Every structure is written in C-alpha cells, then in structure tokens.
Amino acid sequence: NQPLISEVKNILRVAKQECEEIEICPDCYRNYYTMEEDNYFAAVCRRPHAIVWAKLKGHPYWPAKVVRYNELRHEVDVRFFGTHDKCWLKPDKCYLMSRNYPNNKKPSKFDQNKFDEAIRDMNLHLDQLDQ
C-alpha cells in the first residue's frame, strides 16, 4: 500500500506545480502545451511580460521575461529566452530591455551560441509584440 500512497503524493505534487504555472500565466502555460517547441516561448500573452536583461551570479546578462513579482521577498520571477530556464532575482539584477548591452562583459565564446539563440528567441517575441 505504501508504493500507492507514494505515487498519489507524487501525482498531487505535480498537479500542484501545474496549477501554480497556470496561475502565473495561463497563456504561457497553454502555449507550452499547444505550440511547436521552437515557438511557444516567443508567443505573446494577452498580458505581455516585461522584457529585461537579467543577471545571474557567475553568468552574463541574458534576455528574459518577467512573469511575476513577489512583494514579500522583493524578487521577480524571470524566464530566460533561449534556455527557457527560470529563477527568482532581485529587481536590481534586471534592466529593462534596450539595444545597449548593460555591461562590458559579453558572454564567453562557450556561451555565444546559446546567447545568439536567446537573442533570436527574444527578437521573434518582439516581432510578435509589434504585430
């Protein structure tokens, strides 16, 4: 009986995570499950997200979407273009998107291909915003 209880707990944990993602942005959630893998992240939501340069410690600034703000922790939930990774950051680690890169330190040659992919992903998103 213990394996069954363990499986039910796992199903409930996953269901809770999925419900939280729907609450964050129903459009992002729907796009993830209904669109092609290459296009879902660039799709525009009914309530567009702020586009920023986001900085994780030990990494270069990277283009990202801000999907929510936690007032208690004073942090923003960002989703990175290209990699589609997500994390919580302090707002002072984010700069509104501009053509100017926010720092002199550009991505390393190792990161350059991933960075170029992130910029393409972001530009696709911005083109769709224009439309």
From TrEMBL:
The question of whether Zinc-finger is a record keyword is answered with yes
Return any one Pfam family short name. PWWP
Sorted alphabetically, the keyword list is: Metal-binding, Zinc, Zinc-finger
Q: Which InterPro entries match?
A: PWWP_dom (IPR000313)
Q: Which residues form the PWWP domain?
A: 48-100
Gene Ontology terms, MF aspect: transcription corepressor activity; zinc ion binding
Write out the GO cellular component annotations: cytoplasm; nucleus
Name of the protein this chain belongs to? PWWP domain-containing protein
Q: Which species expresses this protein natively?
A: Oppiella nova
